[in-house]
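so my prof wants the structure for this chain in the tokens format not the other one, which i didnt know existed until like an hour ago. anyway here's the sequence
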Amino acid sequence: MTIGNLMRLLSDGEVHSGEQLGEALGISRAAIWKQLKKLEAFGVEVRAVKGRGYQLAQSLTPLDGARIVSRLPADARRRLARLFVEDTLPSSNEYLRRRFSQGAGHGEVCLVEQQTAGRGRRGRVWLTPWGQSLMLSVGWRFDGGVATLEGLSLAVGVAVSQVLERYGARPQLKWPNDILLYAPDGSLAKLAGILVEVTGDAAGPCDAVIGIGLNLALPDPLRETIGQPAAVLADTCPDLDRNALAADVVDALLALLAEFEARGFAAWQAEWNRRHAYAGYPVSVSVGHTSRHAVAGDVDAAGNLWIKEEGGGERRLAGGEISVRGRL
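here's what i got, hopefully its the right format
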């Protein structure tokens, strides 16, 4: 028995007795109780209904690989080599990196209900309660080398934002790899992060793993532990079909990756700048342990961010070594 088996039984939001759950999963009521305690540690709130059993505080929709694939259009199915849906992994990016080391990986997608060692940019931890986010990675092999992938993470931000806009959200983008959304308190907060990891030749074939973590819902206790504002899609789109969203994001990413090497980031530049959260605003630019103030400009065709420093000079910032935070 896995946590995923238990979650799929509870995901309807109904009350289930310990005896019913034990019979369905082939374990004792005591073992069910222990598994329910584990769920609390995974950020899932379980209510004990006196005399009746257990119920999730909010209904969850487990990921369903067959439903996701059935929703994909013909072009996406042709590009998709394999789709994995896992209950728990240390990291979906790591999973696909290992697939590449085994001679596979290209065109593969890994979705996971919960990551136990997910990472954001610069090694930051990405917390994911079970079944309340969209965590996925896509693997793609490029022939032209690492240099052809300038701006890829920004283009991914555009592609995902376009999907979210079809659902009624109005995301904005923060350079170089965050998707933002207004939280209920009115603050512009992080909704999703993008992590692109590339291995291979500077001028020859290289393998890219594109990871995305998108908050769909977030329990209040977990929001408090994050230490920074966080937005969730449920605040804007409460009746979201999680599997439909997963299919639409996979479709958008596969289409992007199939075109990116030939077109480059320039094809997505205008759309990124149109959603730029901090264009024209004062920002704090951090490089290593130093910080300076500047005004953010647009991104160029290579995905670099231009800023105007306090002394009046302009400077181009490349990704991977700095962070930009709006001072609004």
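also thought this was worth mentioning. The CA atoms of residues 174 and 277 lie 6 Å apart.
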